[in-house]
Specification:
The protein is α+β, with helices and mostly antiparallel strands. Helices cover about 20% and strands about 25% of the residues. The protein has one domain. It contains four helices and nine strands, in the order ββααβββαββββα.
């Protein structure tokens, strides 16, 4: 297991900003929409700015068992020893799993799978300047587009939400929150990207 811990500090436990608030493991955007697609209930094709996905992924199995998105070792790499998962299959945004350290609210990693196609990263780009004040592309993860988004920019508070494009019509939502000790010291969207790298490895391993 890698010795680096991405969301926690050495001495303390430590999906653009942006994450919506998290309730029971599921991000809840302040506008009351879904985790990625607040403006449309039907899938939309990628617009001119939205990157396409060359090799679509199948998410069926992980939607049924979202806590399989990260292994115990991967969760430990992100959060530190003792990180435990909490599954929620009936979340507003879709099936999700949140990892955190027992008896603490931060740091955390939350992975959300929509129940149906959400329009892909096109939905995020189409909401820029509307429901999402922040839409910022991040470096792709092995060719899969990754976009930070949010109703507001919450990076200063140590939060970030990203949408990982699984296909042109479907995304995986990932929310990270840094520990209090790391706010202002580490990039929460960088931590979200590290989580996305691990989630993608798990998804591809099952395809």
């Amino acid at each position: 297991m890698r010795s680096s811990v991405l969301l926690v500090g050495i001495a303390t436990l430590a999906l653009a900003a942006c994450s919506p608030s998290t309730t029971n493991g599921t991000p809840t955007p302040t506008d009351g929409g879904t985790s990625v697609n607040p403006s449309s209930s039907s899938p939309r094709q990628p617009g001119p700015d939205a990157p396409k996905v060359a090799s679509p992924l199948t998410l069926t199995q992980l939607k049924q068992a979202p806590c399989n998105a990260l292994t115990e070792e991967q969760a430990g790499e992100l959060l530190g020893p003792g990180a435990l998962p909490k599954e929620r299959l009936d979340g507003t945004a879709g099936p999700s799993c949140m990892w955190s350290i027992p008896s603490s609210s931060r740091p955390l990693v939350d992975v959300i799978f929509g129940r149906s196609p959400d329009g892909g990263t096109a939905s995020v780009y189409n909401a820029k300047g509307g429901a999402y004040k922040l839409v910022e592309p991040l470096a792709p993860v092995d060719g899969y587009p990754l976009t930070a988004y949010g109703t507001t920019d919450e990076r200063p508070s140590g939060k970030c939400s990203v949408a990982l494009g699984a296909s042109d019509t479907e995304t995986i939502g990932i929310v990270t929150e840094l520990s209090e000790a790391n706010i202002g010291k580490k990039d929460p969207c960088g931590a979200a990207r590290e989580a996305a790298i691990r989630v993608l490895a798990t998804v591809r391993g099952g395809n």
